[in-house]
Amino acid sequence: MRNPKGFTLLELLVVVVIVGIMSGTAIVSSLGLLQSRRFDSAVESFASAARQARQFAQNRGETYTFEFTLHDPNSNKSAEDPPDHYLLYRGSLRPKNPDWQPLPEHIWIYRTSLNGPPFQWTFDERGTIAPNQMGTIVLQDNTNLDPGLETAGSLAEYLRGKKTNPNGRSRGIIMNTYLGKMSVVTIGTL
């Protein structure tokens, strides 16, 4: 017979196990969402700095440069250049003491189609870049690397493709005209 005053030990254990499973699932889901938001924020900060260089050039009537370093230190201009950083400066010559801005931990500037090093967009007083500076920059979350990116031919087409980049594991910035128009590409769409 059942005791009407309370729950049995078995009933309590079943409830505790169910709550534990639900809590564990919620924690794992929220960690993935947090990392995805961090990734989106890093891509947007990176793109915002590039847009700011263009805006400064137009508003002040001067040349401004947006420069960045790749994750692979051997690909950068100097061994002292910190990987996965970016820099905004007036003119086309890097200052002696550059103020490098880091991307968040686990976010890599993985590949680019820009010629370099140095990898840069130099905006003239009209906010335009030289045609040889047009290209794509791809950022990756190193906790969730995209294996298809290593062999991708056209980075821009790869980022835009729903078949090649269905879950937005690779995100990037495409400088697609000499006028300085930038597109931030996420989740396989433009």
Task: Quickly describe the structure.
By secondary structure, this protein is of the alpha+beta class. The chain contains two helices and eight strands. It has one domain: minor pseudopilin epsh fold, CATH 3.55.40.
Descriptive terms for the model:
2 helices, 8 strands, four-stranded antiparallel sheet, minor pseudopilin epsh fold, 22% strand, 190 residues, alpha+beta
Polypeptide structure, described:
It is a single chain. The chain has 190 residues and is α+β, with helices and mostly antiparallel strands. It has one domain (10-185): minor pseudopilin epsh fold, CATH 3.55.40. The chain has helices at 9-60, 155-160; strands at residues 64-68, 85-90, 101-102, 107-112, 119-123, 135-141, 170-175, 182-185. It has a four-stranded antiparallel sheet with strand order 3-2-1-5, covered by helices on one side. A four-stranded antiparallel sheet has the order 4-6-7-8. The mean pLDDT is 79.
